[in-house]
Design a protein that fits this description.
alpha+beta; Trna Endonuclease, Chain: A, domain 1; 4-stranded mixed sheet; 4 helices; 4 strands; 35% helix
Length: 106
């Protein structure tokens, strides 16, 4: 597998890998909705907070081909306009270093 190739993993495995990487990089507070049917439509999958790094990240997790719903786009774009660190991560972002860079604030 080359550096830009996405690892073969399920959404659940991807989320677990992201959470593990976040914890290894000082993100002590990790929130994700277990049952989104009772949550606000489109709110990002993960909220990651590191007091040590003084960072809070809001991330929607998508498969390589997954598309944002209109509600997800609205949340992320509005958060970005409000100067919050919000975005989308995909499995290939694990191998190309994008997630680690975001977690470290580089």
């Amino acid at each position: 597998m080359n550096a830009t190739q996405a690892p073969a993993m399920s959404e659940s495995q991807f989320q677990s890998a992201v959470i593990e990487l976040a914890k290894l990089n000082g993100y002590r507070l990790v929130y994700h909705t277990h049952d989104s049917r009772r949550s606000q439509k489109g709110f990002p999958d993960l909220v990651l907070v590191s007091e040590h790094r003084q960072r809070a990240l809001f991330r929607e997790l998508k498969t390589t081909k997954g598309r944002l719903t209109q509600e997800q786009f609205d949340w992320i774009s509005s958060m970005q306009l409000a100067k919050l660190n919000a975005g989308v991560w995909r499995p290939e972002d694990l191998t190309n270093g994008h997630i680690l860079k975001d977690l470290r604030g580089a």
